[in-house]
């Protein structure tokens, strides 16, 4: 005996779509989206920017990390429509396969990944973390709240929202340290 | 996620008007907790009012010498504010111990106060939960309760409040400022903001439907040693099993516990009486009713209190006042 098919048509839903204007990696993009569409789904499904990954879809893994207005956030836990008029940077905005960004190159150099699923989120977070340390934003492991300096412990604490189940953590730390040292050397060179 | 309509408002007044004319509406700011719950259909608003563009995103000095923190100040920015770091270190420390960098960049001051339960029975829509569906029962009472509350609970609900920031706000005697849909403003001391579950665990705070938090104010700083110590299952990005916000002055130890109760747990009478860590612990946790699984939180809280009180000004092993927990 087979179950009878439902005879009622699915409830009709009102069209709540809105125009969403984003600047993604420097390029203006106009979308017409249901408000339920997360920023992550807008990037992946509507703009074909599939570098940002959907891991948990609940802000626990960090694979979806992007920069909005230069600030790192979980793109899965925010609606695209909430960011209309704002600037988004994804992994595709940091470099290309032919010309990798500094952090991307460092992850390759230091073997900062195995399966690679978390990697774009790790790299977006890593770029932002060096900026946060540079601006003196304190963290849980900052001993004196008013004195913020680079250390591997600071990086470990600040990267805790990015999970790597291949456990490439030591090499991720090495990659971030390398970029920090490159930036420090470049600054000293200019000074 | 259920379908909903969306609008962006530009002033607190517009927010009040929007919520007054739209039944089933919710405000969205950072959205990190609300969207998480909407995906699971635990929260089912029919309309979202985006309050991210109404201002209220600065920290200002008050005439009384304290600070007025706009409802939309992000957790990262509040923790990094120079005045907060200098005069309210317990608040910076509590904020920095919570969530991840990405979440703190989005999460707001008001939204942090309004975080919902992290109890696994609240999150699992296949299981009973009086907080999620009043009258269905509490799955946690005889279920997995290791992380849950040990005091202030009821037969209806043993869930704990997950916020770190709120624990610091409680020890600092913060005041929550709001505006109601009719435009009337009011000020609610944080001691009166949260509700014990009783037989209505779905009512978690003093806010009325459509009431919007506009700011949280802090009284003038009282100095002292500021500490936030958080014990959890891993060193970062985890909720507290037990946490303790402490401001230790020459006269008094101001103390509020997190992770142990449905609200930031503070017993002023114990602070006034003072005495040893042992006697203060007994007064603060009198009447505790832990489950077999979370009974460990009581000795943990007692030891955390004892270790913290050793950092009182003049105590034998006084540490760097800014030392991390």
What's the short version?
The complex is a heterodimer of chains A (191) and B (325). With 191 residues, chain A is α+β, with helices and mostly antiparallel strands. Chain A has 5 helices and 5 strands.
What layout of secondary structure does this protein have?
The complex is a heterodimer of chains A (191) and B (325).
Chain A lengths: L17 E7 L2 E7 L5 H8 L18 E4 L2 E4 L12 E3 L12 H8 L9 H16 L17 H7 L10 H22 L1
Parallel strand pairs in A: 1-5
Antiparallel strand pairs in A: 1-2, 3-4, 3-5
Chain B lengths: L4 E4 L3 H10 L3 E4 L5 H6 L7 E4 L8 E3 L5 E4 L4 H6 L1 H6 L1 H8 L4 H6 L2 H5 L6 H4 L41 H7 L3 E5 L5 E5 L22 E7 L6 E7 L10 E7 L4 E6 L9 H6 L3 H8 L12 H13 L16
Parallel strand pairs in B: 1-3, 2-3
Antiparallel strand pairs in B: 4-5, 5-8, 6-7, 6-8, 9-10, 10-11
Helix pairs in contact in B: 5-9
Task: Enumerate the spans of chain A where pLDDT stays under 50 for 5 or more consecutive residues.
Answer: none
Sum up the overall morphology of chain B in one term. globular
The CATH superfamily name of the domain at 225-309 in chain B is CO dehydrogenase flavoprotein, C-terminal domain
| Total tally of structural domains of chain A | 2
Low-confidence stretches of chain B: 317-325
CATH architecture of the largest domain in chain A: Orthogonal Bundle
């Amino acid at each position: 005996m087979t179950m009878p098919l439902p005879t009622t048509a699915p409830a009709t839903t009102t069209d709540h779509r809105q125009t969403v204007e984003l600047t993604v990696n420097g390029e203006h993009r106009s979308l017409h989206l249901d408000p339920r569409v997360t920023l992550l789904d807008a990037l992946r499904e509507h703009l074909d920017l599939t570098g940002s990954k959907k891991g948990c879809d609940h802000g626990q893994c960090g694979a979806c990390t992007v920069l909005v207005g230069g600030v790192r956030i979980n793109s899965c836990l925010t609606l695209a429509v909430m960011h209309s008029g704002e600037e988004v940077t994804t992994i595709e905005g940091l470099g290309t396969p032919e010309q990798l960004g500094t952090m991307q190159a460092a992850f390759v150099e230091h073997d900062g990944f195995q399966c690679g699923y978390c990697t774009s989120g790790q790299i977006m977070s890593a770029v932002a973390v060096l900026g946060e340390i540079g601006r003196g934003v304190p963290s849980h492991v900052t001993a004196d709240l008013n004195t913020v300096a680079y250390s591997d412990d600071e990086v470990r604490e600040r990267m805790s929202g990015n999970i790597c189940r291949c456990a490439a953590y030591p090499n991720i730390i090495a990659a971030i340290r390398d970029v920090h040292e490159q930036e420090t050397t470049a600054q000293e060179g200019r000074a | 996620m259920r379908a909903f309509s969306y609008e962006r408002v530009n002033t607190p007044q517009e927010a009040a008007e929007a919520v007054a004319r739209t039944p089933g509406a919710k405000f969205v700011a950072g959205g990190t907790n609300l969207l998480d719950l909407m995906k699971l259909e635990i929260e089912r608003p029919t309309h979202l009012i985006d309050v991210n563009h109404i201002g209220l995103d600065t920290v200002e000095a008050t005439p009384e010498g304290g600070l007025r923190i706009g409802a939309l100040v992000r957790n990262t920015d509040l923790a990094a504010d120079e005045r907060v770091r200098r005069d309210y270190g317990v608040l910076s420390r509590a904020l920095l111990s919570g969530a991840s960098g990405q979440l703190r960049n989005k999460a707001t001051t008001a939204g942090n106060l309004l975080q919902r339960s992290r109890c696994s029975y609240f999150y699992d829509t296949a299981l009973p939960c009086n907080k999620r569906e009043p009258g269905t029962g509490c799955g946690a009472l005889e279920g997995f309760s290791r992380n849950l509350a040990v005091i202030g609970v009821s037969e209806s609900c043993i869930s704990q409040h997950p916020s770190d920031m709120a624990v610091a706000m409680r020890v600092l005697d913060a005041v929550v400022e709001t505006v109601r849909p009719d435009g009337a403003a009011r000020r609610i001391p944080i001691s009166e903001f949260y509700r014990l579950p009783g037989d209505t665990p779905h009512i978690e705070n003093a806010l009325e439907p459509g009431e919007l938090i506009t700011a949280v104010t802090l009284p003038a700083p009282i100095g002292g040693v500021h500490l936030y110590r958080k014990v959890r299952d891993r060193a970062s990005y985890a909720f507290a099993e037990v946490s303790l916000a402490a401001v230790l002055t020459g006269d008094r130890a101001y103390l509020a516990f997190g992770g142990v109760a449905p609200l930031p747990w503070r017993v002023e009478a114990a602070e006034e009486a003072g005495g040893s860590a042992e006697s203060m612990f007994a007064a603060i946790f009198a009447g505790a009713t832990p489950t077999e699984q979370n009974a460990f939180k009581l000795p943990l809280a007692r030891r955390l209190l004892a270790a913290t009180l050793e950092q009182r000004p003049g105590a034998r092993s006084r540490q760097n006042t800014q030392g991390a927990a």
